[in-house]
C-alpha cells in the first residue's frame, strides 16, 4: 500500500464545520465595508515577481526569505502573492482607476502565501480580508480605515482588542531620523543580532521588530521616529488621533511600531488580541503614499489594512457556529424506484421555490430517515408512500396527508412565513 498523502506542511483544509465560521467573517466584513462604499476586488494568485520586489522592499524578510517564486515555461519570474496591497495598486494603475472619483475604495478576501515557520494562527497559505483606499491624502481616510477594521473585529467578538498606532512620517522627513538611527546602531553593532547588523544600511527601522535580547536592549535607548516628524506629519497624525477620539476608539501611541513592509508612510497601526498570546497581531496596516511610483505609475496616495481570517477566528472565542438550514426533508416509505423518482421531483420543485431541501440519498430505513432529518434540523419531513404524501411538522408532531408536490411546497412556505 502506498503512503497516505497529507496536506503540505503549513497548509490546512477548511472543513465544512469551519467553513460556516469563515462565512460569518466574510459576511461581517462585506456588510461593514460595502456600507462604507468599498467594492470587492480580486487579483491573481501570482504576479510578476517585480511587483513585490519593488513594493515590499528588497531588505524585508518577505522578499529575502518567504516568497514562493518560480519561473514559468516562458522564462518569466512569477511569485505567489505574499500580500495583496501591491497587486491592488498594480491593478489600480493598469486599469486606469485614477479616472474614477477618488478615493477609489476596494476590499478583498484573498489567499496569500509565505514560507515561514508554521504555528498556531500562522500558516504558509493563509487568508486575509483587507481594505484599500487610493487617491486621497486626507487624514479622514486613515481614521475611517482604522474605524472599519475596529468595527469588524468588535462585531466578531475579538477578545482583548487593543489598537497601537504611530506615524512613520514621509520619506523626506524620515531621512534625518534614519541617519540618527543608523549611527546609534553602528555604535552598538557588536550587541545586535546578525540579521539586524546586515540591514543597518538597507532598513534600520526593522531593528525595532527584533526579538534578539541584545538588540532589544539597544533599541530601548534608540531615538524614536515620532520625536523627529516635521510639522506636516505631526498635524496629519494629530488629525487622525482626533477623529479616532471622536469615534470613541481607544488607542495607544507606540513609537516603536514598525510594519514589516517598506512601503508605509505616515500612519501605521496594528490591532492585537490578548487571546492570541505572543503572536498577538490580528490585523493592521497604514498609509503608502509612494507605492504607485515604485510600481512605475504616477503618484497616488493610499491607505489600507489586512487582517488574517485564521487569526480573527482564533481571537473571536465565542463566535457561534450557525445551525444548518433545512426546511424540508424528503423521505420514502419503501424506497421503490417510483418513490425515488417522485422524491427527486419533489425536492427539485421545492428548491426551485426557494425552500432549503434535503433528499434521502443513503437507502436508510424510515426510522433512520427521521433520525437524519433531525440531524439536518429539518422543519418538515415529507414521506412519500403508496398512499400519497404525508407531511410531518417536526416541531409540533402534527401530520397531514397532501395530494401533490405543489401542496407540500405551499404548506412549507406558509410555515416559513408564519415563523418569520
Task: Tell me what the structure shows.
This protein is α+β, with helices and mostly antiparallel strands. It has 2 domains: 241 residues, 2-Layer Sandwich (BirA Bifunctional Protein, domain 2); 92 residues, Anticodon-binding domain (Rossmann fold). The protein is 38% helix and 21% strand. It contains 14 helices and 16 strands. The strands form 3 sheets. An 8-stranded mixed sheet has the order 1-5-6-11-10-9-7-8, sandwiched between helices. A 5-stranded mixed sheet has the order 13-12-14-15-16, sandwiched between helices. Helix 12 packs across helix 14. The radius of gyration is 28 Å and the shape is elongated. The two termini are 55 Å apart.
Q: C-alpha Rg, in Å? A: 28 Å
Uncertain segments: none
Shape summary:
elongated
CATH superfamily of the largest domain: Bira Bifunctional Protein, Domain 2
The level 1 CATH classification of the largest domain is Alpha Beta
Beta-strand content bin? 15-25%
Mean pLDDT: 90
EC number: 6.1.1.21
Family: Belongs to the class-II aminoacyl-tRNA synthetase family.
Pfam families: HGTP_anticodon, tRNA-synt_His
GO molecular function: ATP binding; histidine-tRNA ligase activity
Secondary structure elements and pairings:
Elements: H1 16-35, E1 39-40, E2 46-48, H2 49-56, H3 61-66, E3 69-71, E4 77-80, H4 85-94, E5 104-113, E6 125-134, H5 139-156, E7 161-167, H6 171-187, H7 194-198, H8 213-219, H9 231-246, E8 252-253, E9 265-273, E10 281-287, H10 291-294, E11 302-308, H11 309-315, E12 328-332, H12 337-352, E13 357-359, H13 366-376, E14 380-385, E15 388-393, E16 399-402, H14 405-419
Parallel strand pairs: 1-5, 7-8, 12-13, 12-14
Antiparallel strand pairs: 2-4, 3-4, 5-6, 6-11, 7-9, 9-10, 10-11, 14-15, 15-16
Amino acid at each position: 500500500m502506498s503512503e497516505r498523502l497529507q496536506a503540505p506542511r503549513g497548509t490546512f483544509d477548511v472543513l465544512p464545520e469551519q467553513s460556516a465560521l469563515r462565512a460569518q467573517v466574510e459576511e461581517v466584513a462585506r456588510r461593514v465595508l460595502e456600507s462604507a462604499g468599498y467594492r470587492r476586488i480580486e487579483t491573481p494568485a501570482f504576479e510578476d515577481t517585480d511587483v513585490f520586489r519593488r513594493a515590499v522592499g528588497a531588505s524585508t524578510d518577505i522578499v529575502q526569505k518567504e516568497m514562493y517564486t518560480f519561473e514559468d515555461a516562458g522564462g518569466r519570474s512569477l511569485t505567489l502573492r505574499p500580500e495583496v496591497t501591491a497587486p491592488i495598486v498594480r491593478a489600480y494603475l493598469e486599469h486606469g482607476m485614477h479616472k474614477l472619483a477618488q478615493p477609489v475604495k476596494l476590499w478583498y478576501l484573498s489567499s496569500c502565501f509565505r514560507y515561514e515557520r508554521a504555528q498556531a494562527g500562522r500558516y504558509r497559505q493563509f487568508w486575509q480580508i483587507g481594505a484599500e483606499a487610493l487617491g486621497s491624502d486626507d487624514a479622514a481616510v486613515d481614521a475611517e480605515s482604522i474605524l472599519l477594521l475596529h468595527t469588524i473585529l468588535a462585531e466578531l467578538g475579538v477578545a482583548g482588542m487593543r489598537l497601537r498606532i504611530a506615524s512613520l512620517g514621509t520619506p523626506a522627513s524620515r531621512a534625518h531620523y534614519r541617519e540618527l538611527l543608523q549611527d546609534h546602531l553602528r555604535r552598538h553593532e557588536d550587541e545586535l543580532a546578525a540579521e539586524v547588523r546586515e540591514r543597518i544600511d538597507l532598513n534600520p527601522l526593522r531593528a525595532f521588530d527584533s526579538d534578539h535580547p541584545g538588540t532589544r536592549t539597544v533599541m530601548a535607548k534608540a531615538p524614536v521616529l515620532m520625536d523627529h516628524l516635521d510639522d506636516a506629519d505631526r498635524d496629519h497624525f494629530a488629525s487622525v488621533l482626533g477623529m479616532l477620539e471622536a469615534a470613541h476608539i481607544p488607542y495607544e501611541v507606540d513609537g516603536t511600531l514598525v510594519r514589516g513592509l517598506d512601503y508605509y508612510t505616515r500612519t501605521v497601526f496594528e490591532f492585537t488580541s490578548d487571546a492570541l498570546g505572543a503572536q498577538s497581531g490580528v490585523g493592521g496596516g497604514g498609509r503608502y503614499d509612494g507605492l504607485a511610483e515604485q510600481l512605475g505609475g504616477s503618484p497616488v496616495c493610499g491607505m489600507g489594512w489586512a487582517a488574517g481570517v485564521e487569526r480573527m477566528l482564533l481571537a473571536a472565542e465565542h463566535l457561534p457556529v450557525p445551525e444548518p438550514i433545512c426546511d424540508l426533508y424528503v423521505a420514502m416509505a419503501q424506497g421503490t424506484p417510483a418513490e425515488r423518482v417522485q422524491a427527486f421531483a419533489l425536492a427539485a420543485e421545492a428548491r426551485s421555490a426557494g425552500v432549503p431541501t434535503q433528499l434521502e440519498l443513503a437507502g436508510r430505513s424510515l426510522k433512520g430517515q427521521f433520525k437524519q432529518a433531525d440531524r439536518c434540523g429539518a422543519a418538515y419531513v415529507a414521506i412519500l408512500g403508496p398512499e400519497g404524501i404525508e407531511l410531518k411538522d417536526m416541531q409540533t408532531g402534527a401530520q397531514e396527508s397532501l395530494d401533490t408536490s405543489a401542496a407540500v411546497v405551499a404548506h412549507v412556505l406558509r410555515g416559513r412565513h408564519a415563523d418569520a
